[in-house]
Each structure stands twice: as C-alpha cells, then as structure tokens.
C-alpha cells in the first residue's frame, strides 16, 4: 500500500468519473473542512479485525455475507428500518452458519451506502431532462430542478445519517438483540405463511435446543449473545471519502474511517484513476467489483495496484457477471489470479448482472436468475478447487415487491404493490431467507 494519502487536489487532477458537479467550490470546501473535523465513524482496529476475518475467508475457513440496500436514503434512517435489515441479515447468517456449517463474516451495505454511479447523467420524463438521481449523498429523488441540484451540504447529512445508523447497529449487535438464544424473536412479527418461514422456524427450534443443552452443561460465552457486524459501502464520492481518511494514532497509517470495508464499483475501477489511487493509500479491506468485460490482466493489475504487499484479507473480488455469463466469464479471472499466487476473497454479487426492465416499466430482477448465477459461481469454484468465499446481495427487511419470483412467486403485475427502492430492486425478507437456505445447501454439499 502507498504510505501517503494523495491530497484532494492531486486526486481531482487524476482521471475520475461519476463525480457530482457542484456549482460552488467554496461551499464544497466549507463542507469537507467540517467533515475533516468530525470524529471517525469507524476505528482502525475494527477495520484490521475485519481484514483478519476476510483473510480467513480467503483461506476457505469462513464465508462472507454482505448485504443491504442498493441505496440507503435519509427517509429510511429509522429504528424499524435498520432493525429490519439487521434482522434479515442475522437470520441469513444463522441459516448459513448452522445449515452450511461455516463461520459467517457479517458485513452490511449500510451506514454509508448513499452515492450511486449512473449510466446516464440526465433523466428525461415527458420531454423534460434533469440531472439523474445519484443517491441522497448528491441530490434528491424528486423530479424537480431544485431536488436534482448537486448539493455539497448533503455530504454532512450522509455523515450524520451513517453515524445514527451505525450507533443503532452497534447497540443491536452488542446489546442483546443478536443473542442467539432469541433467534425466534427476530422472526416474531413476520407472517409465517411460507415454506421458507417454516424452514426457518424449524431450524431456529433446533438451534434453540442445542443452545439450551450447551447452557445446561455450563457453557456461557459472550459469543452466544453478541455478533461482530461491519459496515461497508461503495467509496464513490472522492470529496467525502478523502475527508473521512484519517491517520490512525496507533500505527500512523491512513484509514478511510467512513466504513470498515469500502469497495470500488464496476464503473470507477480504472487503473491510474482517482478511486484506485485513494483506496491504494488506505489500510481498510477493499472490495473490487468485476463485471463481464473484466480480463484476468485487469484483475491482476488492480490487485497489484491496491495490494502490492499481498496483505491477507486486503482484496475481495466481487464478481457480477450475470446468470448467462458466469460460467464462461468467471473461470479465466479465478485462474489468472490463482496463477499470480494471490489468495483473495471471491464473492458473488448475483444482482447487478441480472437487472432487466419488466413489460410494465419496472426495473427488476428475477429470483431464479439470482439463484442461477449463484449456482454458476459455486460450480466454477468447485471445478477450479477454489473457495466460493461469499455473497453480496441487495436486500431489505421489508416485504417489498421489487424482484420477481421466489417462494411467493411474485409476478411482474405484483411489482406495483410495494416498489420502494430509489435505485436497484432488492430481494425482500422472504426471498433473502430463501437464498440463505440455497447458499447453505451449496456450502454443505
Ligand atoms: C452497486 O453495488 O449498487 C453497483 C452500482 O454495482 P456495480 O458497481 O457492480 O455496478
Ligand atoms: Mn445496486
């Protein structure tokens, strides 16, 4: 890793894409100055701890579950919403740990996932063109010139929203909510009317019996009542991520303190570009999205740029090939990286290569395509003798209707019922749990 952080000016002088266009540089400077004075959101030691856990994943001894909204929004920073997401992630992790018999490293797309890359700068409706919505970190979702203005003040709001979210997440995971002995209550107010829920309840019964046995035998351990949970997001906005980069007082090394793990998106991973330069200078574990056009040379060059010292757990490749491509596109990447002698974490994002527009105009994904890509991912790693290290999912704890298929067989006509995402379609709670069982089956094969 480079040992010095580039200045903001150096960073902006590099090739860069997907950045906001602010009309008042003085306002941006005022906001980033304020951010630089605010406390870190996460601590260096926590980032190191996650990197060590990811090193275990890279060695095939643990599995990564990474999930959450495509885009968090200010309106959904509520106790219920955060709790709902956490509950579904913890339930999925329990299913994978128990049925898949593998330790699960839990990472949310949460507390910072507010900025979105877009394929078009403008959105046109009824002959009117306005700047595209780029996430609450940049502008508002309403289709008005005022809301769509790129507003630097929003960088302070994402700091505050992330801080409030993280505070609640920390309280939940360390304060008793995540106690394995209350695993039934995570599900208490869910409607139990699908196969998936019944399977979950049966599994929760089994775990409860096993735990009761352990407690009767005198086992009393903090690991039953607390979980380690980490926050991650795409490090998209250079001004924000740079302002949150701090020198750790213990090690004197730089960390991006906006989240434990940050990733570089499919659209911003140019070698020699500003995003790679900034993330090369920090110590956090780094995710790199790889789409179907990635070559083994790209993957190796990115790993070399971001992790010249080959630090265990530093690099996670998040592949998002699409169900139709994964069996053809993934093997060369895995073979290339293996041949380079690196041990990285391989994670499947079965969402971003499987988005399509339904006949009624909704942007959606099909549960069966998600499963198909995951099966391809597991098969490829089985064939190559490499470890399928994890999954990266867009999900929510609510009963939304954004992806078709799954246990309730949602059809395109159902999408209108509860379509709430401001960006990509997410799996709902049931679809997410169903997926956890599918993953657990592949892990225990
Ligand atoms: C995302 O994770 O929401 C995203 C935009 O992914 P990608 O960079 O892989 O397209
Ligand atoms: Mn997305």
TrEMBL record:
Pathway: Metabolic intermediate biosynthesis; chorismate biosynthesis; chorismate from D-erythrose 4-phosphate and phosphoenolpyruvate: step 1/7
Listed GO MF terms: 3-deoxy-7-phosphoheptulonate synthase activity
Natural source organism: Luteococcus japonicus LSP_Lj1
Substrates-to-products reaction catalysed: D-erythrose 4-phosphate + phosphoenolpyruvate + H2O = 7-phospho-2-dehydro-3-deoxy-D-arabino-heptonate + phosphate
Enzyme Commission number(s) from the entry: 2.5.1.54
Cofactor comment text: Binds 1 divalent cation per subunit. The enzyme is active with manganese, cobalt or cadmium ions.
Binding site residues for phosphoenolpyruvate: 109, 266-267, 289, 320
Pfam families: DAHP_synth_2
Record keywords: Amino-acid biosynthesis, Aromatic amino acid biosynthesis, Cadmium, Cobalt, Manganese, Transferase
Protein name per Swiss-Prot or TrEMBL: Phospho-2-dehydro-3-deoxyheptonate aldolase
């Amino acid at each position: 890793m480079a040992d010095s952080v580039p200045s903001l000016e150096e960073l902006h002088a590099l090739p860069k894409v997907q950045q906001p266009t602010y009309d008042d540089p003085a306002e941006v400077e005022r906001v980033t100055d304020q951010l630089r004075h605010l406390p870190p959101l996460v601590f260096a030691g926590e980032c190191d701890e996650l990197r060590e856990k990811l090193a275990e994943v890279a060695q095939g001894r643990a599995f990564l579950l990474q999930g959450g909204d495509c885009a968090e929004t200010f309106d959904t920073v509520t106790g219920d919403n955060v709790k709902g997401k956490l509950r579904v992630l913890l339930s999925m992790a329990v299913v994978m740990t128990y049925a898949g018999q593998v330790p699960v490293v839990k990472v949310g797309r949460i507390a910072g996932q507010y900025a979105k890359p877009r394929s078009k700068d403008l959105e046109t409706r009824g002959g009117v063109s306005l700047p595209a919505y780029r996430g609450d970190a940049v502008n508002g979702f309403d289709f008005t010139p005022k809301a769509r203005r790129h507003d630097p003040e929003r960088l302070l709001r994402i700091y505050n929203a992330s801080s409030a979210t993280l505070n609640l997440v920390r309280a939940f995971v360390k304060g008793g909510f995540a106690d394995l002995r209350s695993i039934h209550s995570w599900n208490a107010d869910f409607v139990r009317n699908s196969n998936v829920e019944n399977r979950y309840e049966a599994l929760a019964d089994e775990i409860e019996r096993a735990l009761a046995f352990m407690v009767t035998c005198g086992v009393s351990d903090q690991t039953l009542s607390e979980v380690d949970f980490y926050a991650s997001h795409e490090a998209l906005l250079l001004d924000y991520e740079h302002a949150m980069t701090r020198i750790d007082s213990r090690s004197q090394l730089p960390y991006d303190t906006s989240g434990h793990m940050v990733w570089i998106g499919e659209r911003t991973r140019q070698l020699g570009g500003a995003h790679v330069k900034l993330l090369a200078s920090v110590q956090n574990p780094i995710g790199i999205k790889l789409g179907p056009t990635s070559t083994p040379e790209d993957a190796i060059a990115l790993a070399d740029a971001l992790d010249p010292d080959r630090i265990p757990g530093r690099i996670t490749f998040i592949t998002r090939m699409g169900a139709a491509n994964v069996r053809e596109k993934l093997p060369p990447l895995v073979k290339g990286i293996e041949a380079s002698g690196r041990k990285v974490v391989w994670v499947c994002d079965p969402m971003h290569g499987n988005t399509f527009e339904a006949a009624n105009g909704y942007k959606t994904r099909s549960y069966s395509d998600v499963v198909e890509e995951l099966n391809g991912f597991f098969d490829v790693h089985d064939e190559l003798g490499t470890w399928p290290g994890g999954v990266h999912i867009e999900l929510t704890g609510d009963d939304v209707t954004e992806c078709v298929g799954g246990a309730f067989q949602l059809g395109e006509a159902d999408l209108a019922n509860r379509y709430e995402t401001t960006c990509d379609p997410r799996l709902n709670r049931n679809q997410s749990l169903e997926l956890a069982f599918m993953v657990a089956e592949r892990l225990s094969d």
